[in-house]
Amino acid sequence: MSTPFRSPDRQAQRGVALLVVLGLVIFLSLIALPFSESQRLSTQMAANALTVAKLQAAADAAVHRMLFELARPRAADATVALAQWKANGMTHELTENGFQITVSARNEAAKIDLNFAAEALLKNVFTSAGVAEEDAVSIVAAIKDWTDADNLKRPNGAEADDYRAAGKKTMPSNDFFIAIEELQNVMGVTPQIFSAVAPYLTVLSRSAGIDPLTASTAVLGLVPGLDASLVQSWASERDNALQEGLPVPPIPFSSPYFATGGLSTRISAEARSVDGLSASRDASIRVNVLTQIQPQFYLWQRGRERPKAVVAPDAATQPNSGAPR
User: Fold this and answer.
1) 118 backbone dihedrals φ, ψ, rounded to 5°
2) How confident is the model at residue 145 (pLDDT cuts 50, 70, 90)?
């Protein structure tokens, strides 16, 4: 049998066609790869957004769970009462829908009220942040000028004319701060200073002093006239007692800058997923158990970064577990 004759021109055409097809395939592949990667990233972003939304809902639910626990009447049995959730800063752990959730509550009087605190307390807040004492005195005077109802300038303070002369656009309100972020507008307060002092401040306790039973060691260290080593020792004993579910030891020191009570409670909740995503919520709430009035929310915001707190030894580490009734 004879082999069919193929002309060189036809073979060359087929070779060119093959190269064109291969080039087109490569070209389409180069276009498809970035598109495929873009679709993969879009899908992952959508999944992450959905997870974060679920995490935020879990953190919000933890705030309401804490609110429910705080509103419960205290048990008559002392041992049971010690195990109930309180606004003492203890962190309670929960597991829900595969999320690890932590929630804690602390009296707002555990921080220093920007509107009502004694000047000595406020001054120590700024000096502890590295502000020179003379500058700290001026900042405190400017804070008091900001909140008082007149335009009379205190020694070392600042009123509207001083802000105009400094080219400031925001003038003193001659009223209380409604959020600690307003402190950034006060004469002498830089962003760096604000970031350093913000963790110690509140505008919601309406207290001239701090509550030593719930204040952190760092805040207790700002109280004038206290022995630092004694404060550190007692605060450690207090936290250990809370962690073990035991009564808090008596306070071995006193100060005119101490106060109890406070009008509101700060609840902080955080939810984390196994892949490292997280969402948090800070809320400041007034709970009046005696009158059974509806809780009042003063603050509802995404939570700030916070150090790890002592975990309470209760049954709340399991899903759907509750504090003893």
Assistant:
1) -65, 150
2) very high
